[in-house]
Amino acid sequence: MRLFGAVCATSLAACATYSERTAEAYRAFEAGRFVEAEGDYADPKTTDSAFLSGAEAGMAALSGGDFAAAQAHFDRAHDEVRELEDRALVSASDLGETLMSFALNDTFKAYEGEGFERVMLHGCLAITYLAQGKLEGAYVEGRRANKLLESEEALYETRYAAGGLGHFLSALAYEMLDQPSDAFIDYQRMVEKGIGKELAARAMIRLAPRLQRESDVEPLISAFGADPARPEGAATIVLVAGVGSGPFKQEAGLSIPIDGGKFVQWAVPVHAVRPQPVTSLVLRLVGASQSVRTTVIEDVGKVAKENLDDRIAWLAAKSAVRAALKYKLTDELEDEHGLLGLLAGDIFTIATERADLRAWQTLPDTWQAARAFVAPGTHQIVVDAEGGSSAALGSFELSAGETMIVFARALGTRVYAYPIGGRRADSAAATAPMPDARVDDPASP
Fold it and tell me: Does the CA dihedral 141-26-47-98 come out positive or negative?
């Protein structure tokens, strides 16, 4: 009886999936109740994972425009995986040995994130640093994100069309620090990887004359045109946006009955996608002759699936080893306790061979960005979600050469946007005519 009770207790503990445990927190997040979601996720009991508690709470705070709180939560998540990351940056094979470590059930182990999630963590930290004017921190986090991505690529002997978020934020920080050569390299990496190519190519064309590298970008000029004239003393508005909701995990498995009433259970996680009603955002300057549409710089959903697919072979191998051991355990229980032992062994096998469905669910489906150059002065800014709502930010005064950043998050059909920089103009200035904007994006409507 004691054996049967222990098996039942194990079975019940394995029943609730990550999505079920965090459903209330995710509903609050999806509805735009970011403070509530942040509090729910920050409670360790919600996620039962220190990494996910920091990552999910950080994304809730980031989506709500609380950049300091977001950084603190992301730092908590990073503390949980710092040792793993350090090993990954030294040797991809060391990372592989860690991932292959055996456990009775993967859900019983501390969750340290998928490889792409750890990359995304540093991209998100770069956003928080950039939003708080900590430019050196922004490019440091961008570089770390891309080094971790390279480690994942070395581990699985593949190349992901990824890293655009880290490169773009790093390049932006370098430009704001007036280090065009370093910025040029990051933009060049984006073009080489084919991610956010239009946006990065335009930036390279614009920076080339300062670096005397016109010949290096001649193919880009042929493809995208020469650098258009900008307003004298142009200020810059950069939109960085998380669009949509990223994938979540579901279980794929098979229960195979074999001789004598025993079962062999096999289970691995697979990604499931969510509907994406908003495809892109538009940065619109009221009264200006042009607006600018965002371009994708990181396809999170695609990279998440590819990264997990690369790990599936290892996960399946671990699952097969566990199945063999549990079959042997069931055999021994039957020999010792008869039918009750057989029943206990089958229940234990089915209950404990569950796929690990933990995942960073508040990530966006894509990261997107756009850039506009405007004349110094007062500008009334609106962010439109194509297929959704709009967010009117109000009027801002920009000085010559100033860079203003707008961070936005689109969830469902709603868009939430937060201005960083500039000076809020009074009501009289808000109604004044605005100069034309020059758009640094060939995909502008």
Answer: negative
Helix (H, G, I), strand (E, B) or coil at 354: coil
Please state, in angstroms and rounded to a whole number, the distance separating the CA atoms of residues 342 and 395. 72
The residues with which 407 forms a beta bridge, in sequence order, are 240, 418
The values of phi and psi at residue 385, to 5°, are: -95, 120
**DSSP class of 252:** E
What domains are defined for the chain?
A: 2-439 (1.25.40.10)
For residues 81 and 120, what is the distance between their CA atoms, to the nearest angstrom? 13
CA dihedral 243, 244, 245, 246 (to 10 degrees): -60
Tell me the pLDDT tens digit for each residue of 54-105: 999 999 999 999 999 999 999 999 999 998 888 876 654 444 444 444 344 4
Which of 285, 253, 291, 290 has its CA nearest to residue 270? 253
Which letter does DSSP use for residue 374 in this model? E
Q: Could you tell me the two tokens for 54?
A: 């920091």
Q: Which amino acid does the sequence have at 223?
A: A
The two three-digit tokens of residue 175, written as one number: 């430009």
Q: 350-388: b or e for each residue (b if 16 or more CB lie within 10 Å)? A: bbbbbbbbbbbbbbbbbbbbbbbbbbbbbbbbbbbbbeb
Dihedral angle sign, alpha carbons of residues 65, 67, 72, 77: positive
> What's the whole-model pTM score?
0.83
| Closest to 206 in 3D by CA, of 170, 238, 175 | 175
pLDDT tens across 282-300, in order? 999 998 777 999 999 999 9
